[in-house]
Amino acid sequence: MESVKEVELECAFGFPGLPVALLVSLARLKYLALSNVNLDADKEIHSTSPCDVALEGLYLRGISPGVMKILTRTLSNFADALCKLVLMPLVPLVEGFAEAVAELILTCG
Questions:
Q1: Each residue of 42-101: pLDDT tens digit?
Q2: What 3-state class would DSSP assign to 69?
Q3: Rounded CA Rg of the chain
Q4: 40 and 14 in contact (C-beta within 8 Å)?
Q5: Where are the domains of the chain?
Q6: What does the buried/exposed string (b/e) look like for 21-54 if buried means 16 or more CB atoms within 10 Å of the residue's CB?
Q7: Does this model's pTM top 0.90?
Q8: CB 20 within 8 A of CB 42
Q9: Please, what is the end-to-end C-alpha distance for the chain in angstroms?
Q10: 80 in helix, strand or coil?
């Protein structure tokens, strides 16, 4: 819906069909908050087509490296729109999380 500008998704894991395309489509919103979202979609990351990105604020807490990679790929051509990036990892860190964060930060400038 065009009227929706902000989505907050919490505790989404173990969904066998949380489609990568749905996650990518959320980047058209102004604000997106993901908390405890786990998606292992390495095989699907390269099959998603980029969409228009309007994200001004991105809030990430305890997300999986797979989600981070999807967001990095989605934002790679539209990082200029992003004004605020908030990252809050959970302890202990998941393997690959630090590398995924570094890639996202480099992509977003």
A1: 555 555 555 678 888 999 998 888 888 888 888 887 767 788 889 888 777 778 888 988
A2: helix
A3: 13
A4: no
A5: 6-108
A6: eebbebbbbebbbbbebbbebeebbeebeeeebe
A7: no
A8: no
A9: 30
A10: helix
